[in-house]
Structures are given as structure tokens and as C-alpha cells.
Amino acid sequence: MLRGLILLLSGMAAVSAFTSSRSVVRHRRSAALQMVQGQGSGYKKVFVAGGSKGTGRLIIDKLLASGAEVVALVRSGDAFDYKTVEGSLDGCDACITTLGGSTEGGEDGKMVDYVGNNNVIEAAGILGVTRVVLVTSIGCGDSKDAPPPSVYEVLKKVLEQKEKAERVLQRYYTNSNWTIIRPGGLVTDKATGKASLTEDSSGKVHKSNL
């Protein structure tokens, strides 16, 4: 039986509700979805970046099923255009970004893992979006030692860009309502309801559990 492992970092406004110690906390619903709905927060209009497939698409489906209004940025290329991002975010009260690209980046070497996420975070801060969730990866920040060294070397460039985006979020939302989710390896399958939020582990997780 596969039990996914998800590394969770959280801003002060959310940390007590989800992880008050270093123990594993099990959650039945999508981890990212809980970050915007699990506290009875009342967020009505949620922006999702990276919503064309995978985790982002699954998050959108769950948000719509819950009755939330969703604005989705479905093409990663659009995330490079700050004005497009800002216009899409305007009027939203929560934001989830799952943006990520290949290890090679775009034609000019820019990587959506940093540039796109930076645009989302900056626009959210300027517009006063009160809840921001950033999905990155195990291997970022103080979880560098979690993946096997051979895996880290292959993904190093991507992980460094994701980590830069994490630092931007922490800078913009120093004392506010932010969450960084660092999932282990993502696999495509039906939700098991057995993903775990933890502060010090790595592993694999179904996209639908994330």
C-alpha cells in the first residue's frame, strides 16, 4: 500500500492548525485543497496556476466540486507574462500555484519554476491575496538530503529554481497566510486518502492526494 509523503512548511497563521510538532499528520483530503478550505476560511474565488494537467487539474476539479469559483492559468507560458498573471489574479482571495517545467527551461533559459512562480507570488502580494499555497518539491531548501544524490543531481537546476520561488513567497508573506508544500515523487492514480503531511520525510504520493 502506497502512503504518500508531503513535506509541509507553513506561515504562522496556518502552522498551528496543521502541524504543531514534528510528528506526521494524516489527512484524508487533498493537502493543497485543505490549505485554502480546511479551516472554514470562506475563500470563494481561487486562482490556480498550472491547471492544465496533473496536480493543478485535480485541484481545480476538487475546488469546483466544493462550490468555489476558480480562475485557472493553464498554459505555463502565460506565467512568464506578469500582466497576464496579475489580470488573472485580480479579485481572487486565495491562490495555489503548481507551476513547474523541464530541467532545460524555455528558449531563453528561463524556467517557470522560478520566473512564473515569482510573477504569481509578486502579483498576489500586490493585489492583497490573503492565502497563497506554493507546491514545489522534496529536495528544496532544508530537504536537499531527502532525495538520493543521483536524483538530486538530475533535478538540481529545477530544484534550485523552485527554492528561489520559496524564498520569494517567504519574503512577501513574512507574517501572513502562506504554505509551501514539497511533495515526494508524484504518481498518477486514484486518491488513496493516505497521504501524510510531515516535516522531515520523503517518498512518493498520488497526485490526487496532493
From TrEMBL:
Secretion signal span: 1-17
Gene3D superfamilies documented for this protein: NAD(P)-binding Rossmann-like Domain
Cited SUPFAM superfamilies: NAD(P)-binding Rossmann-fold domains
The keyword Membrane is annotated on this UniProt entry: no
Residue span, NAD(P)-binding domain: 77-202
Record key words, sorted: Signal
Protein name: NAD(P)-binding domain-containing protein
Lineage of producing organism: Eukaryota, Sar, Stramenopiles, Ochrophyta, Bacillariophyta
